[in-house]
Amino acid sequence: MNEEFLYYIWKARLFNTDCLQTTDGEEIEIIYPGLRNDDSGPDFFNARIRIAGVLWAGNVEIHVKASDWIRHHHQRDVNYDTIVLHVVFDDDKIILRPNGSSIPTLSLKGRVSSFLLNQYLDLVQGGTLWIPCEKSIAIVNTFKKNNWYERVLVERLQKKNEEIGSLLVRNNHDWEEAFYRYLLRAFGFKINNQPFEMLGNSLPMTYLSKHRNELVHIEALLFGQAGFLADSIENSYFDKLKTEYQFFKTKFGLTPLSRSIWKFGRLRPANFPTLRIAQFASIFYHNEKMLSKVLTSANLSEVYSLFHHETSPYWLRHYHFKKQGKCYGKWIGSSGIENLVINAIIPFVFYYGYLNHQPDLKEKALIWFEQCKPETNKITKGWEAIGEENKSGARSQALIHLKEQYCDLKKCLSCSIGQEVINQHVQRP
């Protein structure tokens, strides 16, 4: 038993409401349980409760034990002086107001179904399952699950809105600069997203834009700032990049990153950060004001075409500067482009539409989400293994968010699927 469970029981009235009385024997009628307060102060506010025939409107505080009132020091907080009802599971102590009168208390012990309690405990304590409701999710109506997936997708977008908003502020509300850094970070494909983010932060887009007419100059700035040109390698292409970067380093007052921040281990050569930098350089070279092109794209095919640009010839036979091999570079594969669109392009378009009051862009972003192919990763495979359909990029993002923000944190009571699983077993004691 914990307070979160009691909050849920109180809000949904999942307890026996027959002949409700305070611990002092006064009759109680719950007209409205109130609104959950996620900030400091009483747990529910604006409740309406009739006690001994008198209608009260005010706040409700909930505890597992009545004595938790003292343990939480509410007796020292004036915000709790006007509580209209104290709801507890175990009434182990009489709680008084500052004027010495007792606070009306409702004890739920004996009023909560043991089946409901056991179902909740099975969910939150099922440590060996991939998700808490793994054995029960099949009983949840498909329509209800789909509605919840749509909601968590929007929740994920809202979370990314906060990230992009913060990035926009840090870049003086320059949309193109913020987009450049957000997209560059996405080129890290999770394993190297932090080094790519550091690269963007240390190399403003304005520096690249001053030399966008020469691909080798863009490459020199990116590779040099990333720390990959600090070695001595006998190679004409490498020497050219190094010479150019030395000039730019002085011109812009740059301090290169350490090469040690980049991760190569357990990556396929096609995902090496050196190749990704070469691919980004080519995309930047061919797409001036890329954000504007993305926003005006009529469909996903136009967006995908922005990424179909070959790297410099050198990267057709290399995956880093020290070894030649088979054909590697060219352009990013279709799965890589899908990843970039889902994790960077669409969230940015959605936020741009949100902040600039352009609902058509928000809707376009959501349509693109539905049109994207589903992602394939450890999390989506886990959902598919328990029978949940992963049918689009939108669904993939919803499933990832649900797993990370709800299932892993055992927030079953905040999840519509978890609530439905619990409610399937509600019985009166």
Write the layout of secondary structure elements.
Blueprint: H1 3-12, E1 28-32, E2 35-36, E3 44-51, E4 54-65, H2 68-71, E5 85-90, E6 105-107, H3 114-124, H4 142-170, H5 175-186, H6 193-202, H7 205-209, H8 215-226, H9 236-252, H10 273-286, H11 290-295, H12 300-305, H13 334-355, H14 359-371, H15 378-385, H16 393-407, H17 416-423
Parallel strand pairs: 4-5, 5-6
Antiparallel strand pairs: 1-3, 2-3, 3-4
Helix pairs in contact: 3-17, 4-5, 4-13, 4-16, 5-6, 5-13, 8-9, 8-10, 13-14
What keyword list fits this structure?
alpha/beta; 2 domains; 8% strand
Proportion in helices: 40-55%
Radius of gyration: 29 Å
Uncertain regions spanning at least 5 consecutive residues: none
Largest sheet: 6 strands, mixed
| Mean pLDDT level | 92
Counting structural domains, the number is: 2
How many alpha or pi helices? Answer: 17
Instruction: Give the termini distance in whole angstroms.
Output: 16 Å
SS-based class: alpha/beta
Order of helices and strands: HEEEEHEEHHHHHHHHHHHHHHH
Extended strand count:
6
Based on Cα principal axes, name the global outline. elongated
Strand content is 5-15%
How does this structure look, described?
With 429 residues, this protein is of the alpha/beta class. The chain folds into 2 domains: 110 residues, no CATH class; 201 residues, no CATH class. Helix content is 47%, strand content 8%. The chain has 17 helices and 6 strands. Strands 1, 2, 3, 4, 5 and 6 form a 6-stranded mixed β-sheet that branches. The longest helix has 29 residues. The radius of gyration is 29 Å and the shape is elongated.
